[in-house]
Design a protein that fits this description.
Blueprint lengths: L20 E9 L2 E11 L10 E8 L8 E7 L8 E8 L11 E8 L9 E3 L2 E9 L6 H7 L29 E10 H4 L5 E11 L2 E8 L4 H5 L5 H6 L5 H16 L4 H11 L6 E3 L17 H9 L29 E3 H8 L9 H10 L3 E3 L3
Antiparallel strand pairs: 1-2, 2-9, 3-4, 3-10, 4-5, 5-6, 7-8, 8-9, 10-11, 10-12, 13-14
Helix pairs in contact: 5-6, 8-9
């Protein structure tokens, strides 16, 4: 069989890095096990977010894959290097609106672009929004060695014999990201016993709200998505995922791990890959696929899943600048680098994963160092 996926040319949603949802994390608070932390990262340029967008956490607490609790972040137009954010909390039927509805529990709080985080209290909730160091780690050159990526094919038919593909270099060691962090009592989310969490970025264009990106399982969109389907996939609702996307997932797994149809469906069901949501039982330790923490090597995990356990581990270590206290991600990393290298880091995330090849090539071709923004 042949494969004509074109996922390697994927770029940021609607061509705008500000709309790119990079990573989703959920874990118990390290300082209070009765509280849950949920982090939605976006915009690998780590600068201001889109003023016409809604960055939303959807939480299903009863297993019907419909939103029961929604936290919607909205941002002002940036001015003079500053931006503010507001947060809306909605529950029940109101939480299923695509708009930022519900009670405004944070109003015009300052976004943190410097090293000192602005912690915002709203009753039992604590919020943060701003630039931080990125906890995501991966060996991009190793991924290029692993897969035949000629002709803009997707990540199929890995080379699993002979020399290890891994370089031992973390391509995102100096990466930054824009982070939205909330910590709140787990009881307010009312898990029964699990939570099913997904991120959504929607942007208003020509008076209409367009679903530009989504975040659930780490690295699923990166490896399973294609140019032909990415817009539809990003606009999809989890409740429809299995019926719409199962066959595409099964097809890809036949190439990456020589799975039979029955084997692929069994693995998808075992992991609960579909629907594409982050499952989290707060009564159990958080480690992906139960929630996600910064030390989870989600690329190793996904490649083992795709290759039926044949892909060796990259051997990379988690980043060391994470914090034990809120907002848990370390301060934004200051560095001198060329613009194309910044672009590589900017692409090193879920929905822009396929753009890394072009950006890495540009990085190697560019020789003019410029300081990164403060």
């Amino acid at each position: 069989m042949s494969n004509h996926f074109t996922g390697l040319s994927l770029g940021p949603p609607l061509g705008d890095q500000r709309l790119d949802l990079c990573d989703l994390y959920a874990f118990q608070s390290p300082t209070d096990a009765s509280r849950t932390v949920i982090i939605l990262n976006a915009n690998p340029n780590a600068d201001a977010l889109h003023p016409d967008a809604i960055y939303r956490l959807n939480i299903d607490n009863d297993g019907d894959l419909l939103t029961d609790v929604a936290l919607s972040y909205v941002f002002s137009k940036p001015q003079n290097g500053k931006q503010t954010f507001s947060v809306f909390l909605a529950k029940g039927a109101e939480s299923r609106s695509a708009e930022a509805t519900g009670k405004k529990i944070v109003a015009d709080a300052e976004v943190s672009f410097g090293p000192t985080p602005n912690l915002v209290k709203a009753g039992d909730h604590t919020f943060f929004a701003g630039s931080r160091g990125d906890a995501f780690f991966f060996d991009f050159d190793g991924i290029k060695n692993l897969f035949d990526i000629r002709g803009k094919r997707n990540f199929t038919e890995p080379h699993l014999s002979g020399k290890s593909p891994w370089t031992g270099v973390d391509s995102n060691i100096e990466g930054n990201v824009f982070s939205m962090v909330v910590e709140l009592p787990t009881s307010e989310l009312a898990p029964k016993p699990e939570l099913h969490i997904w991120g959504r970025c929607s942007v208003r264009q020509d008076g209409k709200l367009i679903h530009a990106d989504r975040a659930g399982h780490p690295s699923v969109s990166s490896f399973f998505n294609t140019d032909d389907t990415k817009l539809e996939y990003n606009a999809s609702e989890p409740v429809n995922d299995r019926g719409r996307w199962l066959e595409q997932f099964v097809h890809l797994m036949g190439h990456t791990g020589n799975y039979s149809r029955e084997e692929a469906i069994a693995e998808i069901d075992k992991e609960r890959t579909l629907p594409d949501v982050l499952n989290f039982d707060p009564s159990k330790p958080a480690n992906y696929p139960n929630g996600r923490v910064f030390t989870d090597d989600v690329i190793d995990y996904r490649l083992a899943f795709l290759t039926k356990g044949e892909c060796p581990s990259s051997g990379l270590k988690p980043h060391t600048d994470i914090l034990k206290e809120f907002p848990y991600l370390g301060a934004r990393i200051r560095r001198r680098t060329n613009r194309a290298r910044q672009a590589l880091f900017a692409a090193a995330h879920e929905s822009s994963f396929g753009a890394r090849l072009t950006l890495d090539r540009d990085r190697k071709d560019s020789k003019s160092p410029t300081p990164s923004p403060a």
